[in-house]
From TrEMBL, chain A:
The protein's name in its UniProt record: ATP-binding protein
One annotated GO molecular function: ATP hydrolysis activity
Membrane topology recorded in Swiss-Prot or TrEMBL: Peripheral membrane protein
Superkingdom in the source lineage: Bacteria
InterPro entries found in the cross-reference section: AAA+_ATPase (IPR003593), ABC_ATPase_HisP-typ (IPR030679), ABC_transporter-like_ATP-bd (IPR003439), ABC_transporter-like_CS (IPR017871), MetN_ABC_transporter-like (IPR050086), P-loop_NTPase (IPR027417)
Keyword line: Amino-acid transport, ATP-binding, Cell inner membrane, Cell membrane, Membrane, Nucleotide-binding, Transport
Pfam families xrefs: ABC_tran
Organism phylogeny: Bacteria, Pseudomonadati, Pseudomonadota, Gammaproteobacteria, Pseudomonadales
Leader sequence segment: none
Protein's cellular compartments: Cell inner membrane
Domain ABC transporter: from-to ranges: 9-252
PROSITE patterns: ABC_TRANSPORTER_1, ABC_TRANSPORTER_2
From TrEMBL, chain B:
Membrane topology annotation: Multi-pass membrane protein
Subcellular location: Cell inner membrane; Cell membrane
Gene Ontology biological process terms from the UniProt entry: amino acid transport
Gene Ontology molecular function: transmembrane transporter activity
Family statement: Belongs to the binding-protein-dependent transport system permease family. HisMQ subfamily.
Annotated InterPro entries: AA_ABC_transptr_permease_3TM, ArtM/GltK/GlnP/TcyL/YhdX-like, MetI-like, MetI-like_sf
Pfam families cross-referenced by the UniProt entry: BPD_transp_1 (PF00528)
Protein name, as recorded: Amino acid ABC transporter
Domain of life per record: Bacteria
Stretches of the chain forming a coiled coil according to its record: none
Occurrences of domain ABC transmembrane type-1 (ranges): 14-207
Length: 270, 218
């Protein structure tokens, strides 16, 4: 079931509605082992909803999502019956997620954040968990911050702790929802650097991002979400250079204009 | 003038009564905390029935005066076929039920102040609802509401003076008895007041100390 050819993650015709607002309108996506997929799209196009559905933080109400061949969240599809908590946890045990707002627990140290689930969920002894937790913090370059509390860390550092916390559970798939959007510009690089390293190590990743440079450099596949559909998908070169799709062209043009604007400002003599 | 010999003579009795007041208040508070966390969780539950039950609990036990609750537990429950409860039991039950209602409201506010994303992270990492409650929600809610919680503890210890109504030899009851026999009303009740301050001033101090210590890590 876990051979190289089966996708780690498959979405088939996934739909999600909030009341009368149909946010996802039949999304299909396959993510292969070690593939990095970047999801781009205008604000409100449903990127977060799609990513959160992949973790069943949103209950998608149409279609199917499979992780490692196992149906996510539902015990049966028609009629839709929710899977038991233990079943859900089992299916998504191979999944780690990183949020825009870090979502660290502020009353625990960096190490405490990383160790909590290792002890409570994986059943590691405190000392084994701490050994592993320190290794994870080391991996994101924060070995010396193990005892710091989130409030004592910069946004970039907090996000790296959040990545370490997710990695400690040894996921085979990592989801990132705009991991750098809440960061001051000068802190974005250190987080992207950790993610690049992760991709280079072969981690399977789905990343919602506005960092087109990152997408161009690291993604195997870029998917453009608009109006609840994936309207364009392909290698970064095809998406960023050779696209014929009018909405995508417009989206990229907006992005370029915005950055050109900053470029102009920088070049304007004082 | 202050009658020192009578005061010294009464000290052993007052000390004993202090222990009774502390015991009933603290045990009542401990149960009140458990009730409060449970009721607050019910109030925030996605299940409408639980929400309504939690709301009804708070309505009753915050709405009915503690004195009436105590009389009810001690005198009326045995009448409807329930076993007799010793005074200390009735006192603890009464204090626990009433403080539970107030603590529930405090904790509800505390729980609501925790960003939802933190709970999603806990859920995704596989923590059970119980683990999320005890490891993530309660520790943070305590930090966030510490002033209100300390305030509630002080109010409860003062309210515990009402338990004398079920015949428990607490500070207030013993002071009343002493005053009735030595006729030094002013002096005896002054001493009584000092005893309550003796409990509550260190408690308030402990509260602000904790607040400062926990504030550093939160
Ligand atoms: N919990 C929710 N309840 C109701 N509507 C929501 C909820 N979450 C998202 N939406 C709506 O779904 C749409 C897509 O939102 P989102 O997935 O956050 O977009 P994006 O991440 O691409 O900016 C928006 O119109 C938003 O208002
Ligand atoms: Mg979003």
């Amino acid at each position: 079931m876990n051979d190289v050819t089966t996708p780690i993650l498959t979405l088939r015709n996934v739909g999600k509605r909030f009341g009368t607002n149909q946010v996802l309108k039949g999304v299909d996506l396959d993510v292969q082992r070690s593939e990095v997929v970047c999801l781009i799209g205008p604000s409100g196009s449903g990127k977060s909803t799609l990513l959160r559905s992949m973790a069943f933080l949103e209950e998608y109400d149409e279609g199917e999502i499979h992780i490692n061949g196992q149906l996510l969240g539902w015990q049966s599809i028609s009629p839709r019956r929710r899977a038991s908590r233990s079943r859900l946890n089992q299916v998504r045990s191979s999944l780690g997620m990183v949020f825009q707002q870090f979502n660290l627990w502020p009353h625990m140290s960096a190490l405490g954040n990383v160790c909590e689930a290792l002890v409570r969920v994986k059943g590691l002894t405190r000392s084994d968990a701490e050994r592993k937790g320190r290794a994870m913090l080391d991996k994101v370059g924060l070995a010396e911050k193990a005892d710091a509390f989130p409030a004592q860390l910069s946004g970039g550092q907090q996000q790296r702790v959040a990545i370490a916390r997710a990695l400690a559970m040894e996921p085979s798939l990592m989801l990132f929802d705009e991991p750098t959007s809440a960061l001051d510009p000068e802190l974005v690089g250190e987080v992207l650097q950790v993610m690049k390293q992760l991709a280079a190590d072969g981690m399977t990743m789905v990343v919602v991002t506005h960092e087109m440079g990152f997408a161009a450099q690291v993604a195997d596949t870029v998917a453009f979400l608009d109006g609840g559909h994936i309207v364009a998908k392909g290698a970064p070169r095809d998406i960023f250079h050779d696209t014929e799709h009018p909405r995508l062209q417009q989206f990229l043009q907006n992005y370029l204009d915005r950055n050109a604007f900053w470029q102009d400002l920088k070049e304007t003599p004082a | 003038m202050f009658d020192w010999p009578t005061f010294l003579e009464s000290l052993p009795l007052m000390a004993q009564a202090l222990v009774v007041t502390l015991q009933t208040s603290l045990v009542g508070l401990a149960f009140g905390f458990v009730i409060g966390i449970a009721v607050a969780s019910m109030r925030l539950s996605p299940t409408p029935l639980l929400r309504r039950l939690g709301g009804a609990y708070i309505f009753v036990f915050r709405g009915v005066p503690l004195l009436v609750q105590l009389l009810f537990i001690y005198y009326l429950l045995p009448r409807i076929g329930l076993p007799n409860i010793p005074p200390i039991g009735a006192a603890i039950i009464g204090l626990a039920l009433a403080s539970g209602a107030y603590i529930a409201e405090i904790f509800r506010g505390g729980f609501l102040a925790i960003p939802h994303g933190q709970l999603e992270a806990a859920n995704l990492l596989g923590l059970s609802p119980w683990q999320t409650l005890t490891r993530i929600k309660v520790p943070q809610a305590i930090r966030l509401t510490l002033p209100a919680l300390v305030n509630e503890m002080i109010l409860l210890i003062k309210a515990s003076s009402l338990v004398s109504v079920v015949g428990l030899a607490d500070l207030t009851r013993v002071a009343q008895n002493l005053a009735a026999s030595n006729y030094l009303f002013l002096q005896t009740y002054l001493v009584l007041a000092l005893f309550y301050c003796l409990i509550n001033i260190p408690l308030a101090g402990l509260g602000s100390l904790l607040e400062r210590r926990l504030g550093r890590s939160a």
